[in-house]
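Blinded run. Sample ID left blank on purpose so nobody reads anything into the name before looking at the predicted structure. Input follows.
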Amino acid sequence: MSLFSLILTELTAELALFAAVGFLLFALDDLIVDLIYFLRRGWRAAIIYSRYPRMFAGDIPSPMRPGWMAVLIPAWDEANVIAPMLRATLERFGTSHYRLFVGYYRNDPATRAAILGVEDPRVTPVDVGEDGPTTKADCLNRLYAALVAHESRAGSTAKAVVLHDAEDVVHAQELRLFDRLVECAGMVQLPVVPLIDPNSPWVAGHYADEFAEAHMKELVVREAVGAAIPLAGVGCAIERVALSRLAARHDGLPFAGASMTEDYEMGLRLGAIGVKTMFVRLPVEPGSRAVVASRGHFPATVGEAVRQKARWIGGIAFTGWDQLGWRGGLGERWMRMRDRRGPLAAILLLAGYGSALIWAEIAFAAALGAPIAVPVSSLLATLLWLNGWMLGWRLLMRAGFTAAAYGPSQGLLSVPRTVVANLIAVLAARRALLVHSAGGARYWDKTRHTFPLELPLP
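Blinded prediction complete.
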């Protein structure tokens, strides 16, 4: 065997060992989450639901105190989606007591015209007074200031602030749930359910897999271990007094202006000041997969998905580490560690796929008669065997939760879509590192949005 071949085989073995150790640690971490989820689910089935009936959306009692909801919708370059979104929202929310505050920039006349074209007294267009884009958090802070000014003029304070994006499909029962639940918790997050895009079953489809598992299992476990629930930025409500408390601690600016994930940070910051945070997954009716949730289309191309996920990784793993640190109890610190493992996961994926590719080439060369082989130690062999079983379990979990949310065909597709998700994660981590090393987010690096031509049933 030549010196080059020897170095190549040793390098392949070391890369495989590094990836295998990391994958096993991550798999064990995920397995603990699975165990907590199923133990909690079994306990609730045996103890809670044996004494109390399961609750559905129609069973939510009326609120104990009246009030109105302020819905903040930041918009930059959203002329194609904002008008149909507002009309659909007004139709679905109906006659509930609410007001939509929709922010636009003075150098975005198309979005301004689209907003003003929806003539309804419940829509309040807000000129944020700047050329755009600033950061999304900055736009939300200006919408918050517009809300404070409106409350002062009207002599009436909102009961809660609801967050939505310009492409969201809201649920008709959403405000009624928020109206009651913000009396029990300072922050309420509903599930986010990505819409299946038939034109992008692989890229847009992988969001369905990830959110199904995250918003059916992981947020449930997060709440169970006493960690704060991070906001998803859509389909969430913050009780007005709680938001005022947070704003008072940050010079009247409740949203982290320089963050790429101001929604994520807000949930953790609210939890840190003692505000109760709650994740609520409520079925619409018995026997149905439908839940009260925020729906919408996610990026359909690799480039757009990489940009979006780079914001998430950069905001959570890099900026979040800097801004939020490692405060809280054991459950909180554990969840923050899980949140911030994205860059390390990308390195492990790169090492794993790289070693597998080189190993395949070496095996092909050996099959042709070349005197070359990768040395496999007993440790590496054991790790590969364990990781094989863990991977099978992980894919089973993803397929199961996706099937529970979208049906068996999407559950089966989630297995090969894992490769797409891994590729996007690696590329997004690289972009996030470049953005962070350049000084972080300076403007709203948003992706292009679409609004469904045919709305899903509420």
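Unblinding after everyone has recorded impressions. DSSP finds 13 helices and nine strands in the chain.
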